[in-house]
Amino acid sequence: MKQGVIIGFLGKTQDRFSEYQSPKTTREKLETVTKIDGFDGVEMVFPYENTTPEETGALMKEYGLNWAAINVNVKKEAEWVPGALSRAPKDVRDRAVAMIKKAKDFAKAVGAPHVTCCPLSDGYDVLFQVDYGKAWKYMIETVGEAADYLPEIPLFIEPKYSETRVHCHIDSTSKALLLLKEVGAKNTGITLDMGHSLQSSENPAQMLCTIYETGYDAYIHTNDNDTKADWDLIGASRHFLHYVELMFWAREYGYNKYFTTDASPRIFDMVDFFNRHSDITRGVWKLAGNLDRKGIRQLMADENYDALMKMVNAEIYRI
Ligand SMILES: [Mn+2]
Q: Which domains does the chain have, with CATH numbers?
């Protein structure tokens, strides 16, 4: 298994009330990645953490790191704070699509495998705010145009229920899959963020299987939360069995992309926080690999629920 991190979390972060950690340059963030056991993958936020492909590629090489993904940000610029890909003004949407295209150019130039986009600001805060039908139509158009550009760099869409809008348009894995089906481009996938999936009242393992069975590719962000908000906690700190089940099915489907950490240290020591996340993620991957996969699949085929619950108690919880 391969682990990486969204390096934006290796610098200063903030919420409405507090600021956490201290500002870091991209070089300093990459140096921190090398201090985390088992991490060598980088998801970089475009265009805010990179310079030219040549310079950024050289920096990655200097630290011996690999590209997990390019994360294109279409929410930070002032005009996109209220939304980007679904907005009524065409020029606002066009500039958001152009940014995704630039991210694809950058990904190709540095050799990153794909671009992921989480359209967090596209949604609404109050009722009677947006024209839902038009917003949906615009999302299909804009994501379609971005997906069709440079098809050798696939575009992954990351759904989330809430934040920065109170209700994001792409509010569940199923909605993201419907969007991709409407877009109809093959070179697309879903970024399954464990915490986003939980916040959408989903079971992440079931949604991973649903993505694959619908014919799309999947890329996994690891973290945890209390299901009410996207707290970006250490993996398995609240949903251990969900983590094991996600890893079990990731193995069943031959998942071989990075497990990219989308977790925020906030009040915890930066390197300790990510080392604990790395420990549990590697440990759970190993635990899932030691399970009797053929036996479990047979018990499911036989609908032997009692034997499956006994397996969970004995082999996973070890009680
Ligand atoms: Mn994520």
A: 2-291 (3.20.20.150)
